[in-house]
Each structure stands twice: as C-alpha cells, then as structure tokens.
Fold this protein.
Amino acid sequence: MNSADLLAAKVPSGQPATPKVRWKPNVTVAALIERDGRFLLVEEDTSDGLLLNNPAGHLDPGESPLQGVIRETLEETACQFTPEGFLGLYMSRFRRTRTGEDITYLRLAFFGSVSEPDLSLQLDEGIVRAVWMTADEIRACPERHRSPLVLECLESYLAGQRYPLELLTVHESVFTAPSHHRAA
C-alpha cells in the first residue's frame, strides 16, 4: 500500500488509532544491487527452508544505516557494497512459523554496486550462497522470498524510485553514549 492509499484510509470505527503498548518494529537494512540486468540476492537456510533475500539484516546499536547495509552486504556476500542512493523505507509483518511470534520489520533499502567477492571471507551463518538473478526470475518465485519486501524493493527500483543518500541524517549521539537521559 503506498502513502496516498494510506492517507485515504480511515481507522475503522471502534478501534483505537494507537496501541496501548509501546510497539517497536525490528529495524533492518537491505541492499538492492544490479549488474548487467541481474540482481544480487542471497540464498538463506531458514526454518522454512532455503529462501531468497536481498543482502539484508538488523541494524546494530551504534551504527548508521549506511554502515549497517555495508556490513550486512559484506557478511552475506563477501562483496564490498558502495551505496549510491536510498531506495525507500518499507514495512512488512509476518508470523514466525515455529513460534507464532508476530513481527513487524521496518526496512531501510539502499541501491548501489558491489566489488567482486573476497574469496578469503566466510559468509554469515545460514547464508548458503550469493546468486545473481534477473527480475523475471525473481518475480517467478515469490514463494521462495524470505520477505515480500524482496519484490517490493525490486519493483520500486525498476520503476525508477531513487533518493539521495543525504535524505538520511544520523545524529552523532548514535555513535557515543549520551551524557544524560532525556525523553525522546
């Protein structure tokens, strides 16, 4: 659902507009990488079998989204990622098959290029391999996508959606412990 659709939607009557419990989504970063008409994905061994995903992962404490996406891409593909722009902010929700846990992901997606893989590096645990696929190959196997955001990000990129990296601002407090507590 795009922003215009969300703005036009109304909260159903009788339901609160905000939850009573503080909700915190899982913040992730992802890289969309195209080379010669193919896109770099990773094949992951998950509890639901072998699934495809963008090079992606959780944002770690004390790092910026750019640092996170560079780190995750290196860990999962052994390639050095050079971000060229911001693709967008995406959200998805799913229920874990094994535990039934309800999880929402907030994904910051970037596009850019990668180096050749550094064969001396070992891929992250669970990553079977990096694989280059065409857009049609990716579209043809949605049941193998770890997240619906794999296809959402691809379609955004192919539609020409691009934003400058300067869109993101990271305050210096992210990199150092705050001197005192103040409510956000």
The longest helix spans residues 65-77.
